[in-house]
Structure formats: C-alpha cells, structure tokens
Amino acid sequence: MRKKIKIINVVGARPNFMKIAPFQRELDKYKKIFQYKLVHTGQHYDNNMSTAFFKDLNIKSPDYFLNCGGGGHGEQTGKIMIEFEKVLIKEKPDLVVVAGDVNSTIACSLTAVKLHIKVAHIEAGCRSYDRTMPEEINRILTDAISDYLFTLDNMSVSNLLKEGVSKEKIYFVGDIMIDSLVYGLAKVKNKNAILEKYNLTKNEFAVLTLHRPSNVDSEKHLIEIFSALEIIQKDIKIIFPVHPRTLKNIEKSKKLLAILSNCANIILTEPCGYFDFIELFSNSKFVITDSGSLQQETSFLDIPCITVRENTERPITVSLGSNVIAGRDKNKILKFYRQIKSGKFKKGKKIVFWDGKTSARIVAILSQKLAALNYK
Ligand code: UD1
C-alpha cells in the first residue's frame, strides 16, 4: 500500500529556525508524498531566542518540546539524545532532518542513525578547520553519519569529498538562510519601527553581534574588540543586540563595564526577533559580528561585514561576498572600518544558488530519492 514518507524536522537553537521554516513551507507543497512533525529540543528557550522566531517565520508549534536547555555540552547533548530517542521510537520516521552545527544537530542525528533512521543535513560541509570550536566538531560528526548532505557552496562539497564522504550523498543546493532572508525582506519592506525605536537613520549606524565562546568567554578578547569599537562609535552609532551568554560575561567584567560606560554611541538591546533584526542590518552601513549566518546574510545584500574571528567556515563570503576576517585585532578592525568610512571597501559578487530557492531544490531531491519508501 502507498504510504506517506514520514519526516521529523529538528530545531533547537536560534540559527535553526530560519533554516527549517522554508524547508517546511516547501514540504507543505508535497502533502501527497510527505508528512512531517517538528521537534524543538529546547536548547534555546527564551522568548527572544526562540518563540519570537516561530511567530515571525510562521512556523507551526512544535509537536514535541524536549526542554533540554542549559547545561554543559555533554549534559545538553546527552539530555537531547535521551529525549529524542523516545520520540523516534514512538514516531518511527523514515527521515530525520537537521540543520547547521549546533549541539541539537549532532545529538539528534546521532540518535537517529543508531536507530537506523536516515538523516539529511542541511548546511553540510562547512569547515573552519578550527577544532576548538564546538560547532566544528558538531559539523564533522554530523556529516560523517548523514545520508543526504545539502551544501551551500562548492567549497563545502570539496571539504566533504576530502573527508571521504561518497559523492552520491552530496548535493549542492545553495544557502537556505537566504530563502528565509528573502521572505523576511518582503515582510519588513517599508517598515522602520525598529529604526524609529532606536532613533536610527538608514546607512548611518552599524550593527554589532557577539556570541562565540572564543570571544565572549574571554575578557581579553572582548577588551581588544571593544577598544576598537570605542573608537568607531565616536563616528557612528553602533546597535548591539546582546546574546544572553555575552551579557553574563560583560556583567562580570569591571573593565568592560568601564569601557562601555565611555561609549555613549553603543546602544545595547535585548536579542531581536527575526524581522526586527532584518530591518536593522539591512539598513545598516556595516556589520561587526562573530556570527556565521550574518556573514551569509550581509554577503547576499552586499553590506560590509567585519568578522571578529580568526577564521570562517563560510570562506565564500570572503572570496566572493562582502565579508572580511579581522580576528580580534584592534588594528585590523580599524583598518577595515576606515575602508568602509572612505568608500574603499570591496564590492561583493553574486553567489551561485543563493537565490531563495534552496528549499525547493532540497525537497525536490528528497522526493525523488525517497520515492522508493513511498510504496511499502
Ligand atoms: C548556540 C550554538 C551556536 C549558535 C548560537 C546562536 C552550540 C554548540 N552553539 O550557542 O553555534 O551560533 O547558539 O545563539 O550549539 N541561554 C539563555 N537563553 C536561551 C538560550 C541560551 O539564557 O534562550 C543561555 C544558556 O543558558 C547558556 C548560554 O546562553 O548559559 C549559551 O547557550 P547555549 O545554547 O549553550 O549556546 P550558545 O552560546 O547560544
């Protein structure tokens, strides 16, 4: 008898929501072939780190909420595995779909393969070649055990081939984040609620985000970054939606609090909802960040992005896009800032398949590859 292919989609942390939302919207067009359920591991749980994204991106409420937020890496990953296994045993899906590189990604893919359930990984093959990053370990392990690896660029394809992944498993489909960005840009068009709230004028402010443990868990690195920002904010307002991890660390440091008290033009806010954040960065003159996603989003819009990390797992944003890597080096940050200020910063180019149609490509491939399961 013909039966529908059953998929469990996984979200856990903030960068997952904008990757799964367009995928589910596309699955809805294939209702005769697929049925799906959504599992939220609870890795991120605050309203502004999680719930707000469900509303903005119009994601249906999760069918399962595993409530596995907080704790160390081992504890968080372990708790998610224990809870996710119960869901898989009950639901018996044909496929588990995970995205990105967060702890929920590896926890759920590992649980699935141990139960002989196939795994699709969206945003496979990204590599920073820095194994001190928790995300790098999550990427390598998830890719090693996934059955369908969807990559955002050709460099990711080469990374996977070098690691011995068979080429039949790899599909270059483009960047699914851009699908959500295109959706979001249409929603925020002609809106300027956030600009008004913070008294900002298009092109006359910068956006700052910091959350990588390698930056924000180190007072030394934060001080180096903020010593550059202290100079930049004399020229231009900097709006800084603060991640909970970052806030905890700033509040602990007398030195950082002293620097910030000197920076009247750095505006600290709570983490933003998705549409609010798009409104902010799409109107900004430039972005300073350690986020991976924001390097992609700014490249799509050709907005200068100064990445305050030593490396990136998205090198195409540097070779073709509008991203530069400054490390946590005050002088490099200021050098790139001066290029932006004087209009001498590089221009980005278009990147293949970053076009808002990645989820359509993924679902078309899955429907073809999984068709055999459709008849049992
Ligand atoms: C995680 C991801 C990172 C991603 C980032 C986006 C991993 C290894 N890291 O890092 O790749 O870029 O999310 O934000 O998966 N917290 C709250 N409220 C929340 C969520 C977290 O207060 O809603 C607190 C936690 O209790 C913890 C800290 O923030 O103290 C860090 O949270 P955690 O999920 O461990 O990692 P992130 O740093 O957010």
Name the shape in a single word: globular
Please state the structural category: alpha/beta
Count all strands and give the number.
13
Which oligomerization state do the chains in this entry correspond to? Answer: single chain
Number of helices: 17
Radius of gyration: 21 Å
Low-confidence spans: none
Q: Order of strands across the biggest sheet?
A: 3-2-1-4-5-6-7
State the share of residues found in helices, binned by percent.
Answer: 40-55%
Describe the overall structure.
By secondary structure, this protein is α/β, with parallel strands linked by helices. It is built from 17 helices and 13 strands. It has helices at about 15-25, 45-55, 75-90, 105-115, 135-145, 155-160, 175-190, 195, 215, 220-230, 245-250, 255-260, 275-280, 295-300, 315-320, 330-340, 360-370; strands at about 5-10, 35-40, 65, 95-100, 120-125, 150, 170, 205-210, 235-240, 265-270, 285-290, 305, 325. A 7-stranded parallel sheet has the order 3-2-1-4-5-6-7, sandwiched between helices. The longest helix is centred in the first third of the chain and has 19 residues, at about 75-90. The chain is globular, with a radius of gyration of 21 Å. The structure holds uridine-diphosphate-N-acetylglucosamine.
